[in-house]
Amino acid sequence: MIDLGTLGGMSSMANGVSSGGDYVVGSSQDPGGAIAFRWDEERGMVAVEELLSEDDVDVGDWRLQVANDVSTDGRVIIGTMNRAAENRAFLARLGDGTGGGGGGVMDVEEYNRTLYAGAGGIASAGEFLSWLPMNGAHHRPLMMTPDLTGDMCAWASGDFAHHGGTSTGLALAEIGACTDLAGGSVRIGGAVGTTRSWQDLSLGGASRLAGQYVLGEVDWQPDGTPLLLSATGMLGGWQANVGRAYSNGAATAVSSGQTRATGGVIRLRADWLEAVSLGNTTFNPWTSVSLGALHVDGYTESSGPFPALFNAQSMTHVDVRVGLTAVTEFSSQTKLSTTFEVAHRSGTAPGASGQVDGLFAFSLGGGRQSQTWVRAGVELDHKITDNLSLSTSVHLATAGRDPSIAGSLGVKAVF
């Protein structure tokens, strides 16, 4: 039996011993209450807070009260800490013993949230960017854009959107061209665009995605029928940069990483044109089924006391929509389209899995998700000349995977 001593109080209690028996951790009573300690034969009992201080880590107003376990080399200690009435698990990693930094202490609960926010946020933003062209710039088939005089067209459009559930901003800029075939019963088009997203994370962290996509569409209105059938597909790739911030005692640390995301969507849609007419308004019901996929490469963070390695993740989604578009013609130059739709998307939920360097593995989120929401929008089309038109739209959505609010501006020319 060895008397471990105290830290100036009346008692101490050992809770854990390293596998080699060289280190003991526990809790000692000092005049301020319980305080976590580490004991070894060379230095005796030392408060964990003091050991961290030697590595220039300030725990601030947290008090490390209990140490429960310690690694073989004595450098990793886990336990509980307290601040006012708040109790949290901590993980402390000490430097190499030479002083001058290299250590850190994490709030385990908060740290795990940042792991999910970092990798899960990239996956969510990649999903949003994959679907943005389909339900933003191409929320209606090319044949439902303003009719102008000519068999070939070109367009440019821009979208800005915000997803309130994840506080993610989205933007799109696109140019494209189309042509009519088979006497005007078939329209084919193609586009290239750039999209980006931005999301502020907790404690000053940030996630940014930027990249490009290509898109193609084929519309067909069978002769003598009111049906408009369309198939649209897109493929995009984005560079993701994330700065994941987390508490390091009283300070804030940032671990940064970069990765690539690749996504694509295929949509099949059927519109029943002018199913009902009331005055100068026609009602056009429609439905669509889409399949989307996203892959995010694995990546390793750098900097900070607790960088992590994140595994790759792949997601697939099925999106089904039923809607009604009312088109009101105010004049031969101007019309207003009002759309109401119900959307349902099911598939893979965003997640985060991997390892914190030299400490522990994690797997957060993921699994399956299924959401249903409602979206409404208005779009104003105005023919400036017989060969040029301008369109602007606003869409609002309830909680789901579509942006909460989105606005679009586009110009179309024919020749």
TrEMBL record:
Residues 147-415 form the Autotransporter domain. It holds the Pfam family Autotransporter. It comes from the Bacteria. Gene3D superfamilies: Autotransporter beta-domain. InterPro entries: Autotransporte_beta, Autotransporte_beta_dom_sf. This is Autotransporter beta-domain-containing protein. It comes from Devosia limi DSM 17137.
